[in-house]
Structures are given as C-alpha cells and as structure tokens.
Amino acid sequence: MAQGINFALAASVGAAAARPGPEITREEGLHLVSDLRNQARRAVGYVAEITGLCAAARRAAAGEIFVTDRRGFARGFVAMAQGLAAEAWADDEIGWFSGQAVGAQLGGVAGVLAQRMLGIYDPFYQARGEGAPGRVLLVAPNILRFERELDSDPRDFHLWIALHELAHVVQFAAAPWLAGWVRDRFKELVDADPDEGRVGRLADAARRLPDLFTDTPPPDSVAAGLLAPSQAAVFAQITGAMSFLEGHADVIMDAVGPRVVKSIEQLRPRFDARRLARGRLERAARRLAGLEAKTAQYVQGASFVRAVLAASGHEGLNRAFTGPEALPSAAEMEDPPAWVARVLG
Questions:
Q1: Which residues contact 101 (CB under 8 A, 6 or more apart)?
Q2: What's residue 299's pLDDT?
Q3: For residues 193 and 226, what is the distance between their CA atoms, to the nearest angstrom?
Q4: How far apart are CA 94 and CA 107, in angstroms?
Q5: Is the pTM of the predicted complex or chain greater than 0.90?
Q6: How far apart, in whole angstroms, are the C-alpha atoms of residue 273 and residue 133?
C-alpha cells in the first residue's frame, strides 16, 4: 500500500520524546506566558525602528504568537515541516513502511529540538487564510531554563529572544514571495534526488555518523552523504538564504541597545558561552538535528549583515527583500562586497 509521510505519527513521536521542562509554580507560569506575549508584541516596533521596514512590521503585527510547552513545539515543528513539504511530495506516494519510518525519524528530530529551541517562526501557517503572516512559537520551558542558567533579567531576556523571532516575521512580511521561494527550492531539492544511488548515499551518511562525536567534525559530515550531486546547487541556495535571514535576525537582537534591553551587554557573551558549553553527547545530538549548522548560520549571516550595513546601511541591506534575485548566494555570504557590487551597483 502506498501513502505519504505519516505526519500524525511524527507529531506523536515528537510530543512523546519531549521531556517536561523545569519546575515552576502555576502563578510563575502564568506570569511567564503573559510577559512573553507582551514582549513579543513590543518587539515588532523595535524591529521596524531598527530596520526601517515599517510597512512590513505593520503586517507582521497581525501574526499569531503562541507561547507553548515542549510538546506543543514538537507538534508545531512537524506541522511546519508538513507545510514545507506538502507541495514537494504532493504527487509522490511512498511505501507504507517508508512513510512510517520517515514519520518516526521526523518526530525524533522534533523531540530533540523541543528540548533546546527557544522559539521558531512558521511562515507556512495560514490559519487566517492565504497571505496571513504565519505564526511564532515561543517555548516557555526552554526560555525559563536559559534565563535561569544565564542569571538574566527575565523581561530583558524575553524581549531579546522575541526580537529574533519577530525579526523573521518582518522579513517574510517584507518579502511576500519568500515563503513560496523556500517551498519551491525544497521541491527542487526533492525532485533533484534520483532514486538510483540513494541507498549508497544513505550508507555514506551512516559511515560519517562517528564524525558527530569528534571535537571538530566536518560541517556537512552527515548532510553531505544525503545529497546527490544534482542537489548541491539548490542546497547552496537554501543555506545561503537561511544564513542571511538568521544573521539578520541576530544583528537586530543586538541592535536595540541598553535603552531597550538594559542588560544587553551581558546577555550576548553569556548566551554565546552557554551555546559552546555542551557535552560531547549533547553536541552530537545537536549536529544530527541540524542545530550546530544553525549556529554556524548565525555567525556567518551576522558577519555578512554587519559588513553590508557598514557599506550601505539598512536601506541598502533591505534590497535583499525585493526579490529572489536579490538574495545573497552562498558564495556572496562569504564575500559581502560581491553582493553589494551586484545588487547595489
């Protein structure tokens, strides 16, 4: 019997794998949820002030903000994956066993991410109809755990984290074509995967799994084994765009200044130090789930954004949202002047 990926199974596995968060009283929990929502609403205005994307910020303000627990995040992550993959596999059917296996694997990844992610933006969520600005998921238990570990001021930390996620909402509102572009690139990635050789690539990826446990693994140690040569160019397009978007959001987080986030000068070094202070097993799990690659995207993307801002300010940088051709390529992410020369002349 043929069917698609079992996303219902993925959601169940992810929710079951998501362990409870830190202990908190009911009163503390209600206050945490309320403040996260309030700070997220405030964040939109600051993103507009920093970037100049005021019209996009007004559209972004209509988006939905969900403060959730780890199980809710796992289910939300699977729903986002389903929204991304819906068109890519719209005409494909796979065997029943394969659909179950992929669903279980996706759920496992969702469960790992649910323990660590502070928030995520889902641009494919359209509960309010086509063209709605998606939704933000803020993971209350993880935010609470981080703020305790960093010994940070809760309101400062809540606003600082919200700035990153709401920056993504503004990005996609400034570029209404962007969600469709991401989905189309993902479909290209799937379509470019030839059946022949797939087993060999999976075997190669399996051989590279021990690299996850080394202190300095190759950044693409597992992903490289899953890509056919015909997929490499599309994958580079996606990673270049994602690096730009993550770096842009990270720079916005730090641009608010002490007037808005009083402890901003302490937050970034403490936060980055916590990112690095991980055991070997935890680092391996993060690499397998793609979190280490995501951290690398923050670093490279922020470096690109700061270089472009120094050359042309936000007015020049915002040209990246005018169309797919204006997005930086993977090569330009490592050579910001090349993007400035190509797009800004």
A1: none
A2: 83
A3: 9
A4: 18
A5: no
A6: 33
